[in-house]
Amino acid sequence: MILPIVAYGDPVLKKKATDIANDYPNLQDLLANMFETMYNAYGVGLAAPQIGLPIRLFVIDTTPFSEDEDLTEAEQNALNGFKRVFINAKIVEESGDEWAFNEGCLSIPDVREDVFRKPNIIIEYLDENFQPQKESFDGLVARVIQHEYDHIEGVLFTDKLSSLKKKLIKGRLTNISKGKINVDYRMRFPDQKKKR
């Protein structure tokens, strides 16, 4: 089932999410719905707060991203087929020299900005079967994970922008929160409490 994606301005997007237990109700259905919602919106990642649930859960499938012709062959190969579920994730280390990459977000449609992040991460998480995992990732895969991880920490990519950039996009963000934007996927807007 395709769920509405929560738009910028909803308090759930600024709330630090809580861990879930392995008896979380209908988890497999929720995961299937999150993947379906993400694919419907042409995203490569979706966190539970983006569908209104303040829980530490996000899903990623970077395969569509691998078709970007501006990427190197190595980057495309790393992204192709990378599909994961992250439950109760904790980034335990970020390392390397920060680098900029143009990011967007399904909760903030039509806003894209360069965001600086470290290229290497080590993350601990539970997979969809609640099996503990500890892995290291780098490059664009790490970046997608960091972006989604920020969501469960109550952080948006716009929070990482300079004061000047924030001022420049303030009007656009206000319009998104009021539903004054055209999107081709279902959204829930905080100021109007309506679905499209």
Automatic annotation (TrEMBL):
Cofactors, names only: Fe(2+)
Enzyme class: hydrolase
Domain of life of the organism encoding this protein: Bacteria
One example GO MF annotation: metal ion binding
Keywords: Hydrolase, Iron, Metal-binding, Protein biosynthesis
Catalytic residues in the record: E148
Reaction(s) the record says it catalyses: N-terminal N-formyl-L-methionyl-[peptide] + H2O = N-terminal L-methionyl-[peptide] + formate
Residue numbers binding Fe cation: C105, H147, H151
Any one GO biological process: translation
EC number per UniProt: 3.5.1.88
Co-factor remark: Binds 1 Fe(2+) ion.
Any Pfam family: Pep_deformylase
Alphabetized PANTHER family for the sequence: PEPTIDE DEFORMYLASE (PTHR10458)
Function: Removes the formyl group from the N-terminal Met of newly synthesized proteins. Requires at least a dipeptide for an efficient rate of reaction. N-terminal L-methionine is a prerequisite for activity but the enzyme has broad specificity at other positions.
Family in the record: Belongs to the polypeptide deformylase family.
Name the record gives this protein: Peptide deformylase
Originating species: Pseudotamlana carrageenivorans
Organism ancestry: Bacteria, Pseudomonadati, Bacteroidota, Flavobacteriia, Flavobacteriales
